[in-house]
C-alpha cells in the first residue's frame, strides 16, 4: 500500500521504535512507516488502517507492538475474533495486562457477554492502572446491558470515579455511559442530569452528550434554508428550534 513520502517512521512512539530495533534497519523503517499509517487512519479510515496493519504484520509478526496495532485495526473494523487473537498474542509477548479491557470488549463483540463479565472479575483487573480499571467497568456495564440487566449495568457504573468532581480523560465517557444506562431504564430526569455532567467534562468532544441533552430538552437542530439560498448556493445556518415552535 502506498505511503506518503513525508512519513518517515520516526513519528512512532519511542517505546515502539525500541521494539523495532530487533529488526534489520531497512525492515524496521518499513514496519515503522506502516505503523504510522495505522495510527493516522485508525479513526477516520479504519479500513485503510487495517490494510496497513496487515502489511506490518506480514513484515514483523513477532513484534508485540505490531500485533497490538493489528488488533486495534481489526477491532476498529469490528473483526472481533481477529482482534482478540492479536491482542492475546501481544499479551503473551509482553506479559502486560494493559489490553485486558479491550480483550473483554472483543468477547462482547463476539456475542459472549458472560465471558466479558468473567474477565471483569479476574485478578488481572487489579493490576490495571486507574484508566484501565475505568475502561473495564465500562465494558462490564456494557456486558450487563447486552444481557438485558439494566439495573445491574447502572450499579456497575456507580463508583468513586463517577462521583468525583475532578475531570480525567475517562470522565466524560463514564458519565455518558451512566446517563445512557439511566435513560434506557426510563429514569429520564436523572439521565438528563448526567448527560449535562458529561457535557461539562467532554473537553475534546469524545461523546455526543450535547446532542443527547438537546434531545431530552426538546431541541431539534434544522437547516434554515430558503429556496433562494438553495438555488444560489448561499450560506446555510443551523438554527435550534423548540418542539413547541415547529409547525
Radius of gyration: 22 Å
| Percentage of residues in DSSP E strands | under 5%
Low-confidence stretches: 229-247
The count of strands amounts to: 2
Class inferred from helices and paired strands: mainly alpha
Main β-sheet, spatial strand arrangement: 1-2
What's the SSE pattern?
A: HHHHHHHHHHHHHEHE
Shape field: globular
Q: Report on the biggest sheet.
A: 2 strands, antiparallel
Helix content: 55-70%
End-to-end CA span: 53 Å
Mean pLDDT: 90
Please, how many helices?
Answer: 14
Supply database-style keywords.
mainly alpha, 247 residues, two-stranded antiparallel sheet, 63% helix
3D structure, described in words:
Residues 224-247 are annotated as: Disordered. InterPro entries: TPR-like_helical_dom_sf (IPR011990). It comes from Streptomyces ardesiacus. This is Tetratricopeptide repeat protein. This protein has 247 residues and is mainly alpha-helical. The chain is built from 14 helices and two strands. It has a two-stranded antiparallel sheet with strand order 1-2. The radius of gyration is 22 Å and the shape is globular. Mean pLDDT is 90; it is low at 229-247.
Amino acid at each position: 500500500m502506498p505511503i506518503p513520502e513525508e512519513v518517515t517512521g520516526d513519528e512512532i512512539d519511542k517505546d515502539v521504535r525500541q521494539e523495532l530495533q530487533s529488526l534489520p534497519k531497512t525492515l524496521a523503517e518499513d514496519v515503522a512507516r506502516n505503523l504510522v499509517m495505522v495510527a493516522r487512519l485508525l479513526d477516520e479510515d479504519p479500513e485503510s488502517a487495517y490494510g496497513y496493519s496487515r502489511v506490518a504484520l506480514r513484515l514483523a509478526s513477532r513484534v508485540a507492538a505490531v500485533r497490538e496495532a493489528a488488533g486495534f485495526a481489526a477491532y476498529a473494523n469490528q473483526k472481533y475474533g481477529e482482534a482478540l487473537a492479536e491482542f492475546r498474542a501481544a499479551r503473551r509477548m509482553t506479559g502486560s495486562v494493559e489490553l485486558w479491557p479491550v480483550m473483554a470488549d472483543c468477547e462482547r463483540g463476539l456475542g459472549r457477554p458472560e465471558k466479558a463479565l468473567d474477565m471483569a472479575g479476574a485478578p488481572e483487573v487489579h493490576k490495571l492502572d486507574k484508566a484501565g480499571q475505568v475502561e473495564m467497568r465500562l465494558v462490564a456495564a456494557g456486558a450487563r446491558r447486552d444481557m438485558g440487566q439494566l439495573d445491574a449495568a447502572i450499579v456497575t457504573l456507580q463508583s468513586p470515579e463517577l462521583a468525583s468532581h475532578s475531570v480525567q480523560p475517562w470522565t466524560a465517557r463514564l458519565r455518558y455511559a451512566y446517563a445512557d444506562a439511566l435513560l434506557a431504564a426510563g429514569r429520564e430526569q436523572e439521565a438528563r442530569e448526567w448527560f449535562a455532567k458529561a457535557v461539562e467534562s467532554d473537553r475534546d468532544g469524545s461523546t455526543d452528550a450535547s446532542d443527547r441533552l438537546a434531545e431530552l430538552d426538546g431541541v431539534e437542530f434544522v437547516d434554515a434554508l430558503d429556496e433562494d439560498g438553495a438555488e444560489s448556493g448561499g450560506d446555510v445556518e443551523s438554527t435550534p428550534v423548540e418542539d413547541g415552535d415547529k409547525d
